Amino acid sequence: MASFNNKGNMAFLEEEIREDIGWNLYNKQQFSLLEENGELLIRANQGHTVMTVESERLLKQILSADEMIVCVHGTYKRNLESILESGLKRMKRLHVHFSSGLPTDGEVISDEMLNVLIYLDVRKALEEGMKLYISDNKVILTEGFDGLVPVKCFEKIESWPDRKPIPFSNV
């Protein structure tokens, strides 16, 4: 967590930090601000690129598939062939990101241009030994296996927004 000494008006400092970081990041809830012992703390909720971040210390681990109603990753048709060949990759981040709802759900913040939804078979992923976590802003995160969520852990794939099934083999 980044820490800023409380010098003066905390409300003014918080406003200044929000402006400096950008309203877009704040509105997408990618970080949290909290005050502790007179210091303003800033913590990324997800999107970490620092590989030394300890998921267990920052996130709540998901231990049962019953904790999740839906676990979905939004992407684009242009990426689907590559994803089906090698799985979902974390890229330069620490985690692969999933949503706990569909793009039309009120709390879900997603790219308006996405046109494919990949549903994770949470039960199978947990049985395979994949660790899943949920962030403070309800984003589901996993390091996968060496940064990869394999296709065998996909439950289904749909086009969005028409929700038509996209055939694939997860065997």
Helices and strands, with pairings:
Elements lengths: L1 E4 L4 H12 L1 H5 L3 E6 L2 E6 L10 H4 L1 E3 L9 E4 L1 H10 L1 E2 L6 E4 L16 E5 L1 H6 L4 E3 L4 E4 L5 E2 L4 E6 L12
Antiparallel strand pairs: 1-3, 2-3, 4-9, 5-8, 6-11, 7-10, 8-12, 9-10
Helical percentage? 10-25%
Largest sheet: 4 strands, antiparallel
Tell me the number of structural domains. Answer: 2
Order of adjacent strands in the largest pleated sheet? 4-9-10-7
What is the CATH topology classification name of the largest domain? ADP-ribosylation fold
Keywords: NAD, Transferase
Protein name: RNA 2'-phosphotransferase
Organism: Gossypium raimondii
GO molecular function, one term: tRNA 2'-phosphotransferase activity
Describe the structure.
The chain is an alpha+beta fold and 171 residues long. It folds into 2 domains: 2-44, no CATH class; 55-159, ADP-ribosylation fold (Alpha-Beta Barrel). Helix content is 22%, strand content 29%. The chain has helices spanning 10-21, 23-27, 55-58, 77-86, 122-127, and strands at residues 2-5, 31-36, 39-44, 60-62, 72-75, 88-89, 96-99, 116-120, 132-134, 139-142, 148-149, 154-159. The strands form 4 sheets. The chain has a 4-stranded antiparallel beta sheet with strand order 4-9-10-7. The longest helix is centred in the first third of the chain and has 12 residues, at 10-21.
